[in-house]
Write a structure and sequence with these properties.
The protein is of the alpha+beta class. The chain folds into 3 domains: 208 residues, Beta Barrel (Hypothetical Protein Pfu-838710-001), CATH 2.40.320.10; 152 residues, CHAD domain, CATH 1.40.20; 137 residues. It contains 15 helices and 9 strands. The chain has an 8-stranded antiparallel β-barrel. β6 and β7 form a beta hairpin. α6 crosses α11. The radius of gyration is 28 Å and the shape is globular. It holds the Pfam family CYTH. This is Inorganic triphosphatase YgiF, contains CYTH and CHAD domains. It comes from Cryptosporangium aurantiacum.
Length: 513
């Protein structure tokens, strides 16, 4: 559930103003009474969740499931904090696996413990338009007590504070106006807006606002060292991988694909910057990323094939394929996808996976680089990309229409690596690297279509052979194969002009200074 709210800090004697006048005709404020809420918050000993703005709690005193996980989702243009709240049932003494699984990427191998207990005396007011709720105003007086075990040494904070929250309860312009009007009245009365700090972070103090485990690298400039650029690139991809973990677990669209891309990009960057980094330092991470990419690859490959099946079947509306047979083939692929997802789930819930993430963070936090990496990135990195580009140019320029599919696929892999390498150095090289990356992406797109068609043709052949007694299916697979091989030929015909636009000194001159 999406949560959008404005927070305001107020002193203990703040008098809540009358909002009615500012809300406009037909809108009113209805008192909803008082709640006494008791929330126990869970985190790691070093507050890995709090430092990312994530909260996991068990709260009583209100209707609905008691366990809540809140994930930050940025802010609106009006300054409202946006979070996603996931609520589930479960016993009070142990965080439920439905939520702990979702924070695996952030807590990794560290155990979750109770870190603080907050008692909130809450007065609730509903801003309504007729019978439609627009927003809810809550006036919270919060008392903080220490968590069990973690803060028993006195490192926690025992205090109380008061804050106001105005939370959106419906969409549309009327709700926008209600939030804006409430914010204006509260600010005029002395409330301090712009607060975004969760209650738990206020309760735990400075340790909860320390930098996250994966520190953000500052902006790169033309004076940045190659080591700084390498750290920037690796941390950026690592952070994306951590962020996609929860999306994969929640089966969000394209999440598996993007997580796999993160693994591949990290491995490609380690390879590109190989001359500048310690091989023994990089090898363990590369091996583990290969394992994770393989686990992500099964579901993704099945997903691509199912989409390919539908698109290929619909290629020629004047020669439709048997819908029932297409459905049977899709069912075969669906079973394959479900098995692959089961294998992926086993990987993500294994002990190996959080250990991999610990290794990832420890590795990219302080990359071990060679002496040469201390020099400016603009002097050193173009040569790294040139090596990758030359491997592509040497082979892609010699492709012929009669080459085997695998030869074309090898050039696709090289194009992808050249694109990743160019994108990796773009923050310091600038527009020249960006232009080459875009050109390589176009090459990759054409060769990717070629590979998808070639792989699909092989799959339809394998399915036909495995179901040789199903005449209708065999015939349909044959027609699918014809269409896929036509797509292969079309991709090969498209390639030459795309490559000519890419392999030009205008795009590659910066590689050689």
């Amino acid at each position: 559930m999406r949560e959008e709210e404005l927070k305001f800090g107020v002193h203990g004697r703040f008098a809540l103003p009358d909002l009615t006048v500012a809300l406009g005709d037909g809108r009113r404020v209805e008192a909803q009474g008082r709640q006494v809420l008791t929330a126990v918050y869970y985190d790691t000993a070093d507050l890995r969740l709090a430092r990312l703005g994530i909260t996991l709690r068990h709260r009583t005193g209100e209707d609905g499931p008691p366990w809540h996980l809140k994930l930050p989702k940025g802010a609106t243009a009006a300054g409202a904090t946006v979070r996603e709240e996931i609520a589930v049932d479960g016993p009070a003494d142990t965080p439920p696996s439905e939520l702990t699984d979702l924070v695996t990427a952030w807590v990794r191998t560290a155990p979750l413990v109770a870190v603080a207990t907050l008692r909130t005396d809450r007065d609730r007011y509903l801003i309504v338009d007729g019978k439609r709720p627009l927003a809810e105003l809550v006036d919270d007086t919060v008392e903080v007590s220490e968590g069990r075990g973690l803060l028993a040494d006195g490192s926690g904070v025992r205090t109380s504070f008061r804050e106001l929250e105005v939370e959106r309860k419906s969409d549309g312009k009327k709700a926008d106006a209600a939030l804006a009007a409430a914010a204006a009245v509260l600010t005029q009365a002395g409330a301090v807006g712009g607060a975004t700090t969760p209650k738990l972070v206020r309760a735990l103090g400075p340790r909860a606002t320390a930098p996250p485990d994966l520190p953000v690298v500052g902006e790169l400039t033309d004076r940045s060292s190659a080591a700084d650029a390498i750290a920037f690139v690796l941390r950026r991809s690592a952070r994306r991988l951590l962020d996609y973990d929860v999306r994969v677990r929640r089966d969000e669209k394209d999440a598996v694909h993007q997580a796999r891309v993160c693994c591949r990009r990290l491995r490609s960057d380690l390879r590109t910057f190989g001359p500048l980094i310690d091989a023994e330092w990089a090898a363990p991470l590369d091996a583990e990323l290969r394992w994770l990419a393989a686990a992500l690859g099964g579901p993704r490959d099945a997903e691509v094939l199912r989409a390919r099946l539908r698109s290929t079947a619909e290629t020629d509306p004047l020669a439709p394929l048997d819908a029932a047979v297409i459905g049977r083939i899709d069912a075969i692929l669906g079973d394959r996808q479900r098995r692959a997802l089961t294998n992926l789930d086993a990987a993500l819930t294994s002990d190996r996976y959080p250990a991999l993430l610990d290794l990832l963070i420890e590795t990219v936090r302080t990359p071990e680089t060679a002496e040469l990496a201390r020099q400016r990135a603009v002097w050193v990195l173009p040569a790294m990309v040139e090596v990758v580009w030359d491997k592509l140019a040497t082979k892609a320029g010699k492709l012929t229409l009669d080459d085997p599919d695998d030869t074309w696929h090898a050039s696709r892999i090289r194009a992808k690596r050249a694109r990743y390498a160019s994108e990796a150095v773009a923050p310091v090289i600038g527009a020249s690297a960006t232009r080459l990356a875009k050109a390589c992406a176009e090459v990759q797109e054409v060769l990717g279509e070629h590979q998808d068609a070639a792989i699909a043709a092989d799959e339809w052949r394998d399915i036909a052979l495995a179901h040789a007694d199903d005449t209708e299916l065999v015939i349909t697979c044959g027609r699918l194969i014809e269409r896929e091989r036509a797509a292969v030929r079309e991709s090969r015909a498209r390639f030459a002009p795309v490559w000519e636009r890419t392999d030009r000194p205008k795009l590659t001159g910066w590689l050689r200074g």
